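Hi R.,

Here's the input for the flavin mononucleotide complex you asked about:
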Amino acid sequence: MRGEARSDNLCKAFLDKTLTGALESFNICDYFNKEDIMSKVEIGSDRIYYPMPCSLVGANVAGKANYLTVAWFSMVNPEPAYLAVAMNKAHYTNSGIKANGTFSVNIPSSDMAEKTDYCGMVSGRKFDKAAIFETFYGKLETAPMIKEFPFNVECRLVQTVDLPAEELFSGKSSRLTAMKAVSLRVPLT
Ligand SMILES: Cc1cc2nc3c(=O)[nH]c(=O)nc-3n(C[C@H](O)[C@H](O)[C@H](O)COP(=O)(O)O)c2cc1C
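And here is the predicted structure with flavin mononucleotide in place:
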């Protein structure tokens, strides 16, 4: 594969896997030959591009649920369980996380890819993104979660790291809920 066809394939792989690949592995050998993988070129230093699953982070802003798409999220401590999300300072949702000290992380299924994308393309400043989901609240009461998504974690904010462009919110997982059908397939230790 050469040129455009190859980059089309890479784009397709990214689109297929970025939003929906949480439970699958990405095998670059399916898209490139070994020679291409082993030869390196410098592409700058500003970003690392690789397929990542996406979450929707939820927070109440001015008393109303809002969700935004976040690929930069991770477990960062096992015991107690902490999650961290990196969110650009310009985003509408940040003020809600800081005001309430709570947020949620919601993991979509592949059929939710379009809605997940939408929440990353428009701001809650102008659009009521919560209107496209059924929202529920857990014991923290101010961390909105999405009923249609198979995994939801509500978090209490424990630390905010002020980075040059982003705020890194670290939250202690207060409760993890999973769709019943999914929970039966997850090895719980
Ligand atoms: C696939 C995808 C992944 C994204 N990941 C992040 C991310 O990790 N961190 C971030 O700050 N913004 C990320 N964004 C951008 C925000 O989701 C987007 O700017 C959103 O509209 C902000 O919403 P808000 O203004 O309602 O808070 C992502 C967008 C998309 C489409």
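One thing worth noting: The pocket of flavin mononucleotide is lined by residues 54, 66, 68-72, 86-88, 91-93, 117, 120-125 (CB under 6 Å).

Cheers,
M.
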